[in-house]
């Protein structure tokens, strides 16, 4: 026999490697591990049994990972005739679905597919069934050190395919019950100012939130309020429990017991989980409530920490890939932090007035959450909100005890239109007050760099050391702990070498030259409606890596290279700005210019001074040289300009590394240029599934024939080249920076299509 605590620890220890494995073993290897686990299970010793359980749980996690990868291995890069159920729609356009059948073959579990707001022949809503011809593609995300991990997120959510709808014919167009309920709720709240927030709080539908509101919630540290979390599920369970208690007033005494309210609460929590779209965070919360209910019904009494351990083990066993979810890790850390906080620093019980006691209790709770969750906040969001404490001190109780209960009551009484409308109006007024208060607070968002990650753990040992207060011995431990946490601050980066980073931004170009914590940028990525690469990728990356940009060289004006200029100049207005042409507000970029920066020599090799025009062939071509190694940055220069540049510059173009011109288009990378530059390494910034099908197979062959080592961001993610005394060191995100199984190149296509 094994103990319940030991069983839970085996589940967590066995499945935890999914977070760090570089690749998932084959089915044959997993079968071998299962055989070993079966053999280890035979001895009667408890230690052997625990070892066998860990192996069994490891196999369980690996099988779950293989199951998640099956759609991208079997269905990706194919065009298939399918039967689907729509699971997500915004503004009557489909954005998510599940494939239930391919031809005559039924799929279980049905793989999730993401679609980018595709319009159908009639308005789309959740629950509809369609025949669709789909072009399926595997999940693929931009991979930069410290950036948002789209591939990990997709696997955690169980949506590993993207689709382009080639044709569609309806089978059953009736919306499901949840969708009809949301439509009714939307009609009842259509005249209210905070309708989008009400939908987010009630159903987890956050697509309608404006960017301004999102930024405000982020800056004040209250974004968690807009997610369907344990708070919402718990409130719905409490409401169900209360209704059952009221119903028991009609029962004779012999029929009144404590089990019925418990079942009523679980039933209400389950119904609300379904109504909230059965999103993974809500499902995990409901699963935890089922565990607590089962323990209560069985009469098992347990401590807070043991209950936490059991719930975590059950959630991981039910959904092993939850370990890849930031929301899961944040929720688990939050509960552990609260247990730790109240155990090590309980609020002193003094005869305060009731109101003061409640305020102090809430302030004490918010302080614990703020300090102990710093590591997770920094790791996920790369910053902290300085207005977090005062914002949550008011917003959390207001939303928890006023807004959400009013929304839940409105849902319950939705058949009584006037009553439901009155309740929603009151909820809307409460949100007026909450958002007015949040806007009144100063913008408290503070972006921090990676050095602060270790320091953010300080509240945990500090609280332990403060509680013991045992004199000199603990003072030495405290000093050693502080020294260890501050190590990233007094450890200087190598000041002798330098690095060049080609960021993964999809289609476009963004290069960062780094030396002595300073940076020089070459191009700024793309722009789109509502955002750009400078704001979304480059600026956060620079801040996280503690780099101060001193200059920006813009190769040419095309949007995929200049899209982030405005955002970067707004963030660092004193940054030098260089581009071709003689317009005011920037330094010109002409052939023959030369300058020194941080000990590196920059020379411009194209375009000739006074050359008129714009476009690819006017790209500012820059060579960076440290006296031993050199890099040639070429923008989007094409063959005609390459020929002229080679004629005028000749041997001065030789470089160890070449940024592949024009993303590997067949109009560039002429044999003459490659022969003249003679690089050992080529780096291309390209997007997977580019509309222009870049890089060209002809160009790839041209580089390989010359034995030039090829790297591109579509396949390798962020590419970093480090230069020092020896040969250049090339680090790619997928192979070196973060080699994880969920970062692999999924699908089988070696060249973009």
TrEMBL record:
The Gene Ontology biological process annotation of the record reads: establishment of competence for transformation
Superkingdom of this protein's organism: Bacteria
- Predominant location: membrane
> Its membrane topology, per UniProt?
Multi-pass membrane protein
Tell me which GO cellular component terms the UniProt record holds. plasma membrane
Annotated Metallo-beta-lactamase domain ranges read 507-663
Q: What's the short name of a Pfam family annotated to this entry?
A: Competence
Task: For this UniProt record, give its keywords in alphabetical order, as a comma-separated list.
Answer: Cell membrane, Membrane, Transmembrane, Transmembrane helix
Identify the species of origin: Tenebrionibacter intestinalis
> Which PANTHER family does the annotation name?
DNA INTERNALIZATION/COMPETENCE PROTEIN COMEC/REC2, RECOMBINATION PROTEIN 2
InterPro entries annotated for this entry? ComA-like_MBL, ComEC_N, Competence_ComEC/Rec2, Competence_DNA_uptake, DUF4131, Metallo-B-lactamas, RibonucZ/Hydroxyglut_hydro
Q: What's this protein's name?
A: DNA internalization-related competence protein ComEC/Rec2
Annotated transmembrane regions: 221-244, 256-275, 305-322, 328-347, 359-381, 393-413
Q: Where in the cell is it found?
A: Cell membrane
């Amino acid at each position: 026999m094994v103990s319940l605590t030991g069983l839970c620890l085996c589940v967590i220890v066995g499945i935890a490697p999914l977070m760090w494995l570089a690749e998932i073993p084959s089915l044959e290897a997993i079968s071998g591990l299962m055989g070993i686990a079966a053999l280890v299970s035979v001895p009667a010793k408890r230690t052997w049994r625990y070892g066998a359980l860990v192996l069994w749980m490891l196999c369980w996690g690996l099988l779950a990972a293989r199951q998640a990868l099956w759609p991208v291995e079997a269905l990706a890069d194919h065009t298939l005739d399918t039967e689907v159920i729509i699971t997500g729609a915004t503004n009557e356009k489909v954005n998510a679905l599940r494939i239930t059948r391919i031809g005559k073959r039924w799929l279980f579990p049905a793989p999730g597919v993401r679609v980018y707001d595709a319009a159908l022949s009639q308005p789309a809503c959740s629950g509809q069934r369609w025949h669709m011809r789909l072009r399926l593609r595997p999940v693929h995300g931009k991979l930069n050190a410290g950036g948002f991990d789209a591939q990990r997120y997709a696997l955690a959510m169980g949506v590993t395919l993207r689709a382009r709808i080639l044709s569609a014919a309806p089978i059953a167009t009736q919306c499901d019950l949840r969708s009809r309920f949301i439509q009714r709720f939307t009609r009842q709240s259509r005249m209210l100012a905070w309708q989008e927030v009400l939908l987010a709080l009630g159903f987890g539908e956050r697509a309608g939130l404006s960017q301004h509101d999102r930024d405000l919630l982020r800056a004040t540290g209250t974004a968690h309020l807009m997610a369907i979390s344990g708070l919402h599920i718990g409130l719905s369970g409490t409401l169900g429990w209360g209704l059952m208690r009221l119903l028991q007033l009609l029962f004779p005494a012999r029929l009144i017991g404590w089990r019925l309210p418990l079942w009523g609460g679980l039933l209400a929590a389950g119904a609300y989980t379904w109504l909230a779209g059965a999103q993974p965070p809500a499902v995990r919360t409901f699963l935890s409530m089922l565990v607590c209910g089962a323990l209560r019904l069985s009469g098992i009494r347990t401590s807070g920490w043991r209950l936490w351990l059991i719930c975590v083990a059950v959630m991981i066993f039910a959904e092993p890939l939850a370990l890849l979810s930031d929301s899961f890790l944040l929720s688990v850390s939050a509960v552990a932090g609260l247990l730790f906080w109240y155990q090590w620093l309980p609020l002193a019980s003094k005869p305060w007035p009731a109101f003061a006691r409640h305020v102090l209790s809430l302030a004490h709770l918010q302080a614990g959450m703020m300090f102990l969750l710093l590591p997770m906040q920094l790791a996920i969001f790369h910053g902290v909100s300085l207005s977090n404490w005062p914002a949550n001190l008011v917003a959390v109780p207001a939303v928890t005890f006023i807004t959400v209960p009013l929304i839940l009551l409105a849902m319950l009484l939705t058949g009584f239109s006037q009553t439901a409308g009155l309740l929603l109006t009151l909820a809307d007024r409460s949100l007026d007050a909450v958002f007015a208060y949040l806007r009144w607070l100063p913008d408290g968002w503070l972006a921090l760099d990676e050095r602060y990650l270790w320091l953010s753990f300080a509240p945990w040992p500090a609280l332990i050391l403060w509680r013991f207060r045992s004199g000199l011995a603990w003072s030495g431990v405290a000093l050693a702990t502080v020294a260890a946490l501050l190590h990233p601050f007094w450890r200087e980066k190598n000041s002798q070498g330098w690095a060049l980073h080609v960021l993964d931004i999809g289609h476009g170009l963004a290069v960062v030259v780094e030396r002595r914590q300073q940076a020089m940028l070459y191009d700024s990525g793309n722009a789109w409606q509502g955002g750009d690469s400078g704001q979304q990728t480059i600026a956060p990356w620079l801040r996280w890596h503690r780099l101060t940009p001193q200059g920006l060289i813009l190769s040419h004006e095309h949007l995929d290279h200049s899209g982030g200029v405005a955002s970067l100049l707004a963030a660092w207005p004193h940054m030098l700005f260089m581009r071709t042409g003689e317009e005011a507000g920037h330094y010109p970029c002409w052939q023959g210019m030369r300058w020194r920066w941080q000990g590196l020599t920059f020379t411009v090799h194209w375009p000739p001074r006074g050359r008129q025009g714009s476009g690819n062939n006017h790209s500012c071509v820059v060579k960076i040289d440290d006296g031993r190694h050199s890099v040639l940055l070429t923008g989007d220069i094409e063959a005609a300009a390459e020929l002229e540049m080679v004629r005028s510059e000749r041997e001065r173009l030789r470089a160890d590394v070449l940024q592949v011109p024009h993303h590997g288009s067949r109009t560039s990378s002429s044999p003459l240029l490659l022969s003249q530059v003679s690089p050992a390494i080529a780096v291309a910034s390209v997007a997977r599934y580019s509309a222009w099908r870049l890089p060209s197979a002809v160009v790839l062959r041209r580089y390989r024939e010359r034995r030039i080592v090829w790297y591109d961001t579509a396949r390798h993610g962020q590419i970093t080249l480090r230069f020092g005394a020896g040969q250049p060191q090339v680090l790619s995100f997928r192979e070196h920076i973060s080699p994880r199984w969920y970062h692999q190149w999924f699908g089988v296509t070696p060249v973009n299509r």
